[in-house]
Here is the input.
Amino acid sequence: MKVNLMFRHRDFDIKAKLCFGKDVLTSDLGLERVLSNMARGDKIIYDACSTALFCPLQTIDEIRYRQENLRDALRKPDTVRKLYEITVETEKKRRSSWHWLSSAYLSSTFSSAIELLKIYTEMLMELRLVADSKLSGFQSEGFRNLLTMIQRELDDDYFTKVQTLLNELKDNDSMLISARLGNYLQGVSYVLRRKNRKGFWFRWAFAPSYTIAPRDDAGATDLSKRRDRAINEATNALAQAAEHLEGFFTMLRVELAFYVGCLNLADSLRALRMPVCIPNVLPLERQDRSWHGLYDVSLALAKNEAVVGNDLNTADKQLYIITGANQGGKSTFLRSIGQAQLMTQCGMFVGAESFSAPIRNGVFTHFKKEEDTAMKSGKLDEELSRMSEVADHLNPGSLMLFNESFAATNEREGSEICRQITKALIDCNVEVFSVTHLYTYASAFLNDPNTQFLRAQRLENGERTFRIVPGEPMQTAFGVDLYRKIFANSKVK
Here is the structure.
């Protein structure tokens, strides 16, 4: 049985290789708080959501398939959570039966294997009940196929046959096993036989038999070994059946975990009265970006309150330069873009009222780092080293996010370094968002039709709105703001 909730034609690999710079992205974009909120202490949910987030999908078809499943999950959260709870309960019961694996007595092992199959059968019946009662409420291909498959494969006849077999295996105080002698008188072709109650004792009474002499230790040992092998092979057969069902429940839990994580995050954001939306995905070659009310999800969770969102509507731009005063929302704006891109390409919703963006081959960040005594070289050297490592993984169609990069030296040198790197990225068809205080760098692109200038909004009285609006860079250090902050209560004029 296949789950196929994350991909249309293949299983989701929770241990898949993650994208380059996963740890850096997590730190720079504030994604640890997002993942922790999604997981709420459940490791499976955390791992599933982390893998999905850092293994971005690269086709519109894959993204939309997962989006449609997510829409269903958002419409039917109770049912999706119920399905997930069944898989969790199944795992708990399975763990409680682990003792049979280490049992020293084969008969006990056999009985425990039967008990494990009984557990799986009971939980399959739970899944069937959900499918029967909730199928009509789902519209997505993924969930409808899953629930329909459960109904088809786990019909009444299936449960009748399985239950009958388990009862026979469990209730009998003896087992009927056939075998034949192979080379060197070794037992081969062991078969666990079903006892036909009708006429069984008649056939047993006239079957070939022999008696071991009281002192025939060798014969008793040989017969015991043959019995043990028979029981062992029967146990292995039951274990294989249990392993198959375990694989199904494990995969079901892993793939449902992603959607439950999305439900958890959506609940948290809605409680803060923050909007979420299913994004519109554009092809890789497009340069269009538009959104309304885009916000930093991590910041909203950290502050536990509503935060300011931003708007953008642009086309045919490849470079975005964001300037303005400190603490005006520039870094927050940059994080929201990186978060939204990754969330879009893993099939999630986005923290915005609406969001439209093209697929990108990868998301990369280069954020300003605080001084670290562990650094073996200067800060600028460290920045250049990080950039070199990123450059080795960039491809045409990637998204690059700069935050106060290469400002560890003077204005002239920092601007020139930043300009040359940015120009090289643009020439390689990499989309760039750059937050900077380097006026010389920013002004070098003033006449470039491929560049969109944005600025942190600042009112005449110096108040920050934390909104990012269209605006060219300004050659100012905002000294008036510093004066007001320091001398606000002073009589000096």
Remarks:
- The two ends are 79 Å apart (CA to CA).
- The chain has a mean pLDDT of 86.
